[in-house]
Amino acid sequence: MSDTRFEHSLAVAADAGRIAEQLGFDQREAQLVRIAGLLHDVAHPPFAHSGEYGISTFNNGFDHDHEGLYRIATNGIAEALLNNGIHPVEIIAILATNSEEQADNFNVEKVLIEAGYSEEEVKNALSKLPDQERLEALNFIVKEAADRPAYVRMDSAKTNILPEFKERIANFTRRFQNSISSQNGKIVVSDLEAARAVLAARRLLYQEYAQHPAGTVTDEVLIRAVRTAIKSGAVTEEEFVQMTDAEAFKLFKPHYQRWLSNGIEESFEPVAAFRLSDLNEEGRKIVERKAFRRMVRNYVADYIPKDHIVVGVTRDYSKHEKVNTTRDGTVKTFSLDCSIPDTHRFLTIAVSKDIPEKVRERVKQDLSEFLKQYLKNDAQNLRAVIFDNIDDSFFNAA
């Protein structure tokens, strides 16, 4: 079971190679998807996506996927690949294919030129790549058939869910991977029930583990700690990206270290918490903007230091996922809605317990007044229970 980014990458590499062989791909292609699986997260900064958000302020939107392609094309990774008869462009092309930003950040030719390759070298390397349909199949093996199930297994291991539920997740994951086949050059999934279950489990585990309200507050503290360290000159963005979690943590200011070490539930008190479905139209428009966080902090800035109040909002990375499946002997594409509904997403505002209790009570009263303009009349403040373990009954209460 993978618990670290490295272990996760090993799991993706192993699954990708096995599935490629299952589909009848040749040994070289199986080797390529193993390497792509091993390197797909190579540019994740410390603290994963929280660290990524933290440094995005300084370098115009850091993206670990794009940075990963650049790293594969340069430094020791490119040399190691070339020494083993593999051109970096082969791995870059597999990982870049099907990206939402392929036309810009994930353009293979652009990445290689940025990495210092000559136009002639790029042209020669690109001419040897498989056709687009084959690259899409290899990308599916790495990103959808191997990476997503590995995340599901990792998240289920970390969450406090019933053992039988974990076993059901593992069973659906096996069914999904075993039902993958290749038909007329397209990768198809015959077990649509298992595909739906894996996607649903990914969403549910994501909201329970990564986007639990206590998790969103932790994210905001981490993001602010990273930004403060870089802004103070303690580290550059380039240096930070190369660090381990432990190395980066040492650069945080003492109060950030203490809060994160003790746990957010022990270090912060929720002063306001609402489902996003309890926000009115104006509130729903503004709640996910940076301006809203500034407005909240500025509202109580006269008596609360800005880094002692945190605004967390459940993110929704999910969307409509497309899956090729077979029906009546033909290949059809089904779209599966994996977005998180607003009833399952939360606005959480928390104040450091370093602030005296009497002052925290004042914050509750003041923010209650401030938030009225953004809430529906029947909105329920969940601050007393928002950091509790949230189970299905909590999510289904709406």
Structure description:
- This protein folds into 2 domains: 5-150, no CATH class; 213-318 and 340-395, no CATH class.
- The strands form 3 sheets. The chain has a 3-stranded antiparallel sheet, with helices on both faces. A two-stranded antiparallel ribbon has the order 1-2.
- It is globular, with a radius of gyration of 23 Å.
- Strand 1 (180-183) and strand 2 form a beta hairpin.
- It is mostly helical and 398 residues long.
- The chain has helices at residues 5-22, 27-39, 48-56, 64-73, 75-83, 88-96, 108-114, 119-127, 132-158, 163-178, 192-210, 213-231, 237-241, 245-249, 254-262, 264-267, 281-286, 290-299, 357-371, 392-395; strands at residues 180-183, 186-189, 268-275, 309-313, 320-327, 330-337, 346-352.
- The longest helix has 27 residues, at 132-158.
- Helix 1 (5-22) crosses helix 9 and helix 4 runs antiparallel to helix 6.
- It has 20 helices and 7 strands.
Which short descriptors sum up this protein?
single chain, 2 domains, mainly alpha, 20 helices, 398 residues
Rg, rounded, reads 23 Å
Termini, distance in Å?
A: 34 Å
Which strand-content bin applies to the residues?
5-15%
User: What string gives the helices and strands in order?
Assistant: HHHHHHHHHHEEHHHHHHEHHEEEEHH
Low-confidence stretches: 101-105, 390-398
Structural class: mainly alpha
Number of individual domains: 2
What's the mean pLDDT score? 86
Q: How many E-type strands?
A: 7
Number of helices: 20
Identify the overall geometry: globular
Strand order of the largest sheet: 3-7-4
Helicity range of the residues? 55-70%
Largest sheet properties: 3 strands, antiparallel
